[in-house]
Write a structure and sequence with these properties.
2 strands; binds fe (ii) ion; about 300 residues; two-stranded antiparallel ribbon; 18 helices
Length: about 300
């Protein structure tokens, strides 16, 4: 991770006072603003589901018992399992029945989605906008996953977490983040610079730190940290996939931050062209309609 020297923003007395009261965390390579460190841990059940489902020997009963240990979490899983997100015709009333029908990979995506919803807490309009971007990115990931030889569920799970740093900063520093996200930007790189100036860290590095701190899989932190970087030849497939999906989600109307120089859909989707051929890129309207309809499952 690059080193960012904390640079206190001008005229933000509360932020300065908070920083004076408790020092930021200095790791070997990065300064993490203290309130980000003090965020509650990622949902323990979701983290265990992620760990359990990566074990090929795991059986459905174990996962079911784990989730049933938290009735509120289990209820949320059932709610999403029955929502338009998945489009199953018959209603699932019992958790182990839902798990048997959906399969472990789907349950993993549900557990992460429920945990993310819980992490957001009360949603300001900005949190809502960033959450919609993350969810839209996850849904686009799912749609384009086969071109990167990824399972749709795995792509979705990493996609929904890619901007966890932005959500974490919004949650821990709402005023400073609101000022940053409300700025006037030509392009996304400027938003990252503004984050560094205001908070000492950009949302990519903040997200990677959160993922490591929560003990979540390494692939998540790689994507969090580098999804706004220019493409490099040795980028992993999942990083390339999420980077493309993030740009496409913005281009079809779900940006986390509005920039004046916004890629068109075809420009954003051109990242897919080497794999798809230009003619095979899904029509913009079709993709937007799919994402919009499925996003409705998150809203209630
Ligand atoms: Fe991002
Ligand atoms: Fe994004």
């Amino acid at each position: 991770m690059p080193l960012y020297v904390t640079d206190t923003p001008p005229g933000r007395a509360t932020f300065e006072a908070d920083r004076a009261a408790e020092p930021d965390l200095q790791t070997d390579t990065i300064t993490i603003p203290i309130k980000l460190c003090n965020l509650p841990p990622f949902n323990g059940i979701a983290a265990k589901v992620l760990a359990l489902t990566s074990d090929p020997e795991i059986d459905l009963q174990q996962v079911s018992l784990l989730i049933e240990g938290d009735p509120a979490f289990a209820a949320e899983i059932l709610f999403l399992a029955n929502s338009s997100l998945f489009g199953f015709q018959s209603r699932m009333h019992v958790l182990h029945h839902a798990i048997a029908i959906l399969g472990l990979d789907r349950v993993k995506t549900l557990a992460v989605t429920v945990a993310m919803r819980g992490f957001l807490g009360n949603r300001s309009p900005l949190v809502h906008q960033c959450w919609r971007h993350s969810a839209a990115c996850a849904l686009v990931c799912e749609q384009i996953s086969s071109w990167y030889d990824f399972s749709a569920q795995r792509a979705y799970t990493v996609g929904i977490m890619h901007d966890i740093g932005r959500l974490g900063l919004l949650k821990s520093y709402p005023q400073e983040s609101a000022l940053v996200l409300g700025g006037d930007y030509q392009e996304a790189r400027e938003v990252l610079d503004a984050e560094c100036k205001a908070l000492g860290v950009d949302h990519g590095c903040a997200g990677a730190w959160l993922i490591d701190n929560w003990g979540l899989p390494e692939a998540f932190s790689e994507v969090c940290e580098h999804h706004h970087d220019a493409p490099r030849r040795n980028d992993s497939a999942i990083l390339r996939l999420v980077r493309a999906a993030c740009g496409i989600a913005e281009a079809i109307g779900f940006p986390a931050v509005k920039c004046r120089r916004q890629l068109s859909y075809l420009e954003a989707a051109s990242a897919l062209a080497p794999r798809l051929g230009r003619k095979a890129i899904p029509p913009e309207e079709e993709l937007r309609a799919v994402v919009t309809a499925r996003l409705a499952a998150f809203e209630r």
